[in-house]
Amino acid sequence: MKGRWAKYVITGGLIALLVGCSSKPADRGQQYKDGKLDQPLGLVNQPNAKGRPVNGKDFANQVLEIKYASPGMFARQNSTYSAIESWLMAGGDTRQLRQFGLDAYQMEGTDNYGNVQFTGYYTPVIEARYTRQGEFQYPLYRMPPGKRRLPTRAQIYSGALDDRYVLGYSNSLMDNFIMDVQGSGYVDFGDGRPLMFFGYGGKNGHPYRSIGKVLIDRGEVKREDMSMQAIRHWGETHSPEEVRELLEQNPSFVFFKPEEFAPVRGASAVPLIAKAAAASDRSLIPPGTTLLAEVPLLDNNGKFTGKYEMRMLVSLDVGGAIKGQHFDIYQGIGPEAGHMAGWYNHYGRVWVLKAAPGAGMPIFSSVQNSHGGSALLTRQ
After folding, report:
1. Tens digit of each residue's pLDDT (9 = 90 or more) over 95-149
2. pLDDT at residue number 24
3. Contact assessment for residue 376 and residue 10, using Cβ atoms and an 8 Å cutoff
């Protein structure tokens, strides 16, 4: 499915971890409780974590969506899901996982000290019309057929695609770009009918470049201040021509496929439940994998509060820049979800849960030692 928005942003948190581990920063939720870890997924007797998952009901709903939308995935993971359900019904105490036949594999994090990167994505809702009129001047495109090389974003903005591929016209080029980055969204055509879901329909094949990094490199936004909100504010305080020039720095472009009455689905074709689904690197975390995540809590301004909560997540989506020890948590639909997704570029700890096949058995046969997750994301 989609790319997202906060994922396209490089901020200071990862850089601090990579170049300043000796100072052990903690402003983005970094923790250093478990010492240095030497493998991407290490079996532990029990997670060194306090508290119980806060979203057991959401997790159960996500598992039901998997059961109906992807019977094969459900069958492969059913023993794990069943054991987790029993564990959650008994209170979800992390000290009792083994009593329910569950193994926990701690992820080493981007710094080998267990600090796993969390970003957030969401499903935007934008306004559009079927024909170009008034303020509605910015085309949304379907994927052109065939295997020919497609134009860059700048060329598309200049009219390189035929009008027959236009699905509608929005009133904001920045809104189009955000939906592009998120990989999907809902569109309100203003005609009284239900919102139409614009799912991911393909991409133009050109490389992705972060506009967040462009603004940082130009000195227009400080690295530590970078967020979706910062990019929106920049767009609101600059001319349409300047906004277009900035967006054109990213040659990659996403096309959409309209669907009526469709739920938001990830790359696994499973409807996503907010804050219970995440995108991951499939070379490390296969689809359907269950994660016990210690997620940092943020205030309404995106600042780390010093507190965490335990959440159950299922890996159901992917992202071009979600690599290694990095998860992108789905936040839901609309402005409030977008507000939180825009802030997230923080760190917590993650344990993969799996029904125990026997002591010492590998969790996944294809696990790769993939270090240093990217700080940029796209569902492309």
Report:
1. 999 999 999 999 999 999 999 999 999 999 999 999 999 999 999 999 999 877 8
2. 80
3. yes
Any idea what the CATH number is for the domain that residue 132 is in?
2.40.240.50
Tell me, yes or no, whether 256 and 273 share the same domain: no
Q: What is the CA radius of gyration of the chain?
A: 21
Asked whether residue 152 is assigned to any structural domain, the reply reads yes
What is the DSSP code (8-state) at residue 95?
A: G
Q: What is the DSSP string of 184-205?
A: -EEEE-SSSSPPEEEEEEEE--
Instruction: Give which of 243, 246, 156 is closest to 203, Cα–Cα.
Output: 156
374: tokens are: 């990217």
For residues 111 and 135, state if they share a domain.
Answer: no
Provide the number of structural domains found in the chain: 2
Q: Is residue 363 part of a domain?
A: no
- Least Cα distance to 354 among 156, 97, 174 occurs for 97
**CA torsion angle for 314, 264, 13, 153 (degrees, to 10)?**
140
pLDDT digits (tens, 9 = 90+) for 26-66: 888 999 998 999 889 999 988 998 889 999 999 999 999 99
The rounded distance, in Å, linking the Cα atoms of 143 and 165 is 7
Residues near 251 by beta carbon (within 8 Å), at least 6 away in sequence: 152, 153, 154, 204, 206, 207, 208, 209
Show the domain range for 286: 6-121+268-355
Report whether 295 contacts 309 (CB < 8 A): yes
Amino acid at site 355: A
Tokens of 226: 């970078």
Q: Is 341 helix (H, G, I), strand (E, B) or coil?
A: helix
Strands (E), the chain: 41-44, 102-107, 116-123, 125-129, 138-141, 166-170, 185-188, 196-203, 254-260, 277-279, 290-298, 304-317, 326-333, 345-355
With vertex at residue 97, the alpha carbon angle to CA 94 and CA 98, rounded to the nearest 5 degrees, is: 140
| In a shared domain, residues 194 and 241 | yes
Burial class (CB in 10 A: 0-12, 13-18, 19+), 13: buried
